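> call design_seq(struct)
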């Protein structure tokens, strides 16, 4: 799945398959400017930062179990969001520090370190780097990913795929080759 935010005409948090199909709004109310997103891949939760509402909130992958983690002046000027174990990590763009926040109740907000000009933060954890299993976009004997001449995108499952073409090309009737 691909998770993303939008704060154009109607602010929302959405998800879709990797090929863009099955687009679903998971948060579309009481949200203004969601600018950062973090996933708890183990427990299947989506955290987001709303810079207009000065809040960090969470829902499950279906948009249920929504609640506010932290809200208010204490978290103004934040950008970037990452989750690791019991904490959320974000960057305060005002004083360029990394903040650690308890992800369950918003307590224990701590400034950890200063940085120069950081706008994003990521945590890489071995448990979330799942072993690769065979999938529909594996390279075929001719060197084409998923049998696609240009781009292979996983679809609703790791066994399904959609072929796409680079700019200036169109997909042929076989659904694999680009012309």
């Amino acid at each position: 799945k691909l998770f993303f935010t939008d704060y154009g005409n109607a602010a929302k948090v959405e998800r879709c398959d990797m090929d863009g199909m099955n687009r679903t709004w998971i948060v579309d109310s009481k949200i203004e400017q969601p600018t950062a997103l973090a996933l708890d891949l183990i427990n299947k939760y989506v955290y987001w930062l709303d810079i207009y509402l000065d809040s960090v909130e969470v829902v499950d992958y279906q948009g249920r179990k929504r609640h506010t983690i932290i809200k208010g002046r204490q978290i103004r000027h934040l950008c970037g969001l990452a989750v690791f174990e019991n904490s959320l990590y974000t960057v305060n763009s005002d004083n360029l520090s990394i903040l650690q926040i308890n992800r369950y109740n918003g307590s224990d907000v701590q400034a950890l370190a200063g940085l120069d000009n950081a706008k994003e933060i990521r945590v890489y954890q071995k448990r979330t780097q799942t072993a690769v299993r065979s999938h529909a976009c594996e390279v075929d004997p001719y060197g084409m990913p998923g049998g696609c001449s240009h781009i292979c995108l996983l679809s609703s499952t790791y066994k399904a795929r959609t072929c796409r073409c680079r700019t200036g090309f169109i997909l042929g009737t076989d659904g694999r080759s680009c012309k």
